[in-house]
Amino acid sequence: MPTPFPFTAGQVLTAAQLNAITTLPINDQTASYTLVVGDVGKRVIMNNASATTVTVNNSVFAAGDTIFIANKGAGTSTITAGAGVTINTAGSLALAQYGGGTLVALSASTFTFFPNGVRSTLAVDYLIVGGGAGGGKRTSLSAGGGGAGGFLTGSAIIGKQSYTVTVGGGGAGATVTAVNGVNGNKSSFVSQTIGGGGGASFTVADVGASGGGGITTGGAALLDGNNGGTGDSTNATGGGGGGGAGGVGAAFTTANVGANGGAASTNNYTGSSISYSGGGGGGGQTTGGTAGTNAGNGGGNAAGSHATANRGGGGGGGGNGNNGGNGGSGRVVVRWLTANAAGLSISVTGTTTNGTDGSYTWYAWDSTGTLVVA
């Protein structure tokens, strides 16, 4: 039984009302709301699945007035200053679900909001892409495309500490006759590590996150990728395609034509759909194989193409004795709900880009660095 605030002169209180002196009345609101003087000493509770605001206007409250404001709805509720009003806080005025605190008037136009509790953890989603492998080279003949770097998405709860973000480099394409392309390097974040792609081959391709394309045998994939394709094992006129995160590398079918690389996988954590970890195309005596998106095409009587940087694709296989293309470096993307980071200090090192996408904040690492939560 809540106490009937505000008290009036001559009012008689029951024993139950006196015993409930600390039980404050609740003002439930299901839409955006403007505070009134009658809210002093109450709990204003917002409840809406969509975003709402709690507006504080000028010359409504006196110094010392306090109002407890909380949000139990799924939508963020933001305490908003009206014209001529200043609201200071050490935390955030955006209240996520189950967030709240006390608004104290210092004057008719100046307020301080004291958030309740101290946030010490943050739920994040992550994308980890390993480095793609280089394409192969074979004397006067054609070699396979490089395997894609690994592709992994997941979720984690992180705390107040420094986290290393490792971005794996792409493997170099073969420049020496009858040498496999170099495997891509691993990328990692929190406890998750994703492998680099397997190097393409002039004979048997390397094992990797996705296997490289071969001539006699395509490379096998690890748990998170796909196998590379087998090339022209008789005359070596076309190399197999490197395996991609979204599909196996194709096998040789037509004389003098390299096989296609495996398909890439897509991710939209940065607000745009981006293709990662495509397999490199196999080299051909006349026509190179088509790579998975953002990977390197196989060379047709030419060097294999390099994969796009920071997309984890395999390099193209060299055609007719030419060099293999370089694999693309990896990438790490981490995102979190913006409202959930209220009260936390977040900083980064390394080569990064960042932005917002709807209710999320994201950071992308294109080189090894750190994510620091304090």
Describe this structure in words.
With 374 residues, this protein is an all-beta fold. It has 2 domains: 15-115, Jelly Rolls (Sandwich); 119-374, no CATH class. The chain is built from 1 helix and 22 strands. It has one helix spanning 15-19, and strands at 26-29, 33-34, 43-46, 52-56, 66-71, 77-81, 86-89, 94-95, 100-105, 110-115, 121-129, 151-159, 162-165, 187-189, 192-194, 265-267, 274-276, 331-337, 346-349, 352-357, 360-365, 369-373. The protein has a 6-stranded mixed β-sheet with strand order 1-3-5-9-10-7, with no helix packed on it. Strand 9 and strand 10 form a beta hairpin. The radius of gyration is 30 Å and the shape is rod-shaped.
Compose a concise summary of this entry.
The protein is mostly beta strands and about 375 residues long. The chain has one helix and 22 strands. Strands 1-3-5-9-10-7 form a six-stranded mixed β-sheet, with no helix packed on it. Strands 12-11-18-21-20 form a five-stranded antiparallel β-sheet, with no helix packed on it.
Can you lay out the helices and strands and say which pair or pack?
Elements: H1 15-19, E1 26-29, E2 33-34, E3 43-46, E4 52-56, E5 66-71, E6 77-81, E7 86-89, E8 94-95, E9 100-105, E10 110-115, E11 121-129, E12 151-159, E13 162-165, E14 187-189, E15 192-194, E16 265-267, E17 274-276, E18 331-337, E19 346-349, E20 352-357, E21 360-365, E22 369-373
